[in-house]
Specification:
alpha/beta; Rossmann fold; Multidrug-efflux Transporter Regulator, Chain: A, Domain 2; 8-stranded mixed sheet; 3-stranded antiparallel sheet; 11 strands; about 25% strand; globular
Amino acid sequence: MSFWDVFFEDGNINTIIARPKAGKTNIAVDLGFRAIDHGYTVLSNIIFFKEQNLEKAKEKGWLSADIDYKPIPSKFKYCPLASKLVLEASLYEKNIIILDESGMIASTYKALSNTSVQMRYLGYSIRKIGGCLIILAQTKNSVVPDLREELINYELHIKREQEGARTLEVLKRNEFFNLEKKEYDIEFLPYDVLQDIPRAVIPFDTKSTAGFIWDINLPDIYHEIILQGYDAIETREFLPEIIKTLIADKKIDEFMKKKKFMHIGTVAELLKVHPNTIRNWADEGKLNCIKSDKGTRLFSRNEVSKIAREMGLI
């Protein structure tokens, strides 16, 4: 069995760690090519230049002028949304998920931050669906704590640079029993060295932050899967239905956080009327509302404020 068979194994969570500008994305793109050669589909938030923009990007110095860039493979798919990433992963039997942590690192130092929780459950969900998650990070400590301490299988450190290529040191997660503590410790030990990894030959954008949009509550997805007791095969079958239901609710949750919409009880309290009056106004078209998949009515804060002014309440 080759190293890549082990590295890309279903359920693995691996990291690529190096200082800024050391070539993490370049390495990740090359790994994506290797994965495709091994029959995998690659899902990633790495941004690529469109073919019609290649020459302009070279002129601006955003791409190397001396590289004959190849077209983006159909199996290298751009997924900037958490919902799309998980949905796409459910469609293919062999997945590699490459996630550039740009735009997320600052909040992952806090173990209970929203991003940290989402990242942890992304790892859980990818393991449940079947796939290998590769996370790019500037330091080991910038990886979400729960992933770093429990779930990482391999750490790749960029150790040496030379013109056109890089060398990786591979560390493998090992557990050993600590006699003093009388419990298991986790230690990453040298496993392999990958030499002369070439520059990527598909045109990724080095000037734009990749970022990632958490448009769905991943803990809810994972808990739904666990509660239903889906195995790997059933998970693939039911996941699209689960996500379509949850994504609408998640978006509504985001609206509520930004205080753009209000629930019927809050509206009734502000307008000093019974909730049934608000329902009647909505049914008669006097007060517009939107509905979640579960039928919950949500009212625009701006519109409610307008009516409150007309009623002389504010």
